[in-house]
Specification:
The chain is α/β, with parallel strands linked by helices and 280 residues long. It has one domain: Thiamin diphosphate (ThDP)-binding fold, Pyr/PP domains (Rossmann fold). It is built from 10 helices and 8 strands. The chain has an 8-stranded mixed sheet, sandwiched between helices. Helix 1 crosses helix 7 and helix 4 crosses helix 5. The chain is globular and about 50 Å long. It binds iron/sulfur cluster (SF4). Iron/sulfur cluster binds next to loops.
Length: 280
């Protein structure tokens, strides 16, 4: 698509991040966006390289801090399509605080987390979403603590859109990302995106066998209680939109919020806001 840059990804052959990125590019195109109005902010980790491989405006943020940068971009120029991408290590460890506050602020943007349940770039340490008994070089008997449930965190923080996707199911994945983009508010999508090099437990085969597509159930994503029950079922892997609040009003459209052209705050580097505006 127009969103593919000419850089060759250095991800390991077979990495789930390829499928995750392809779906993001397809969904951006399907929703009528193009590289000139799209701004991708990435964190650090294997997933963080995505801004280089996509053809759009992009910023490679610091570890766990991509969300506040993305919010800043969107508030400075609401005409941009802002997509923040990251990984489970990046987003749910050092970035966990930003995640909760981005969710409750509900700025109209999307957040795609490539969740492979391990730190890949630093060669295979347990991440916040690793299983309690997942053996790694640094946790030989497992982390001995329950994994973070990012969808439960999001729901409890007042999320207006929560979805789960799987990088290997190309069509469903692109559809789910598209729904997140089209949502009026913060569209959060956790994507199972297997690490073929360091995680031999949460593999393609595991997810293929375990995943239940919500579209094939009677799940109602507008019913928060149903969403809560599904999200808290720790022995199930669901795919699809778990929750969507159709009355969502994005932060920047709320009364009294003037995001159109924020003043340059004291202490900001001279010209910083102009730079962001010029991207559009
Ligand atoms: Fe993908 Fe894992 Fe390789 Fe990183 S280490 S590129 S997550 S397969």
């Amino acid at each position: 698509t127009d969103f593919k840059s000419d850089k060759q990804p250095t991800w390991c052959p077979g990495c789930g991040d390829f499928g995750t990125m392809n779906g993001m590019m397809k969904a951006l195109a399907e929703t009528g966006n193009d590289p000139d109005n799209t701004f991708v902010v990435a964190g650090i980790g294997c997933s963080g390289k995505i801004g280089t491989y996509m053809h759009s405006y992009a910023l490679h943020g610091v570890h766990g801090r991509a969300l506040p940068v993305g919010i800043g971009v969107k508030m400075a120029n609401p005409n941009l399509e802002v997509m923040v991408a990251g990984g489970d290590g990046d987003g749910y460890s050092i970035g966990a605080g930003h995640f909760i506050h981005a969710v409750r602020r509900n700025v109209d943007m999307s957040y795609v987390v490539m969740d492979n349940r391990i730190y890949g770039l630093t060669k295979g340490q347990a991440s916040p979403t690793s299983r309690e008994d997942f053996e790694t070089g640094t946790t030989p008997d497992g982390p001995k603590q329950p994994p973070v449930n990012p969808k439960a965190l999001a729901l409890s923080a007042g999320a207006t859109f929560i979805a789960q996707s799987f990088s290997s199911d190309a069509q469903r994945h692109a559809e789910i990302i598209q729904q997140a983009i089209e949502h009026d508010g913060f569209g959060f999508v956790n994507v199972y995106s297997p690490c073929v090099t360091f995680n031999d437990v949460d593999t393609y085969d595991y997810f293929r066998d375990a995943i239940v597509d919500l579209d094939e159930t009677d799940h109602d994503p507008n019913n928060r209680d149903q969403a809560k029950d599904k999200i808290l079922e720790s022995d199930k892997e669901y795919m699809g939109v778990l929750y969507q609040n159709e009355d969502s009003v994005p932060f920047e459209q709320r009364e009294g919020i003037d995001s159109s052209m924020a003043e340059i705050p004291d202490g900001a580097p001279e010209g910083a806001m102009d730079l962001v505006r010029e991207f559009y």
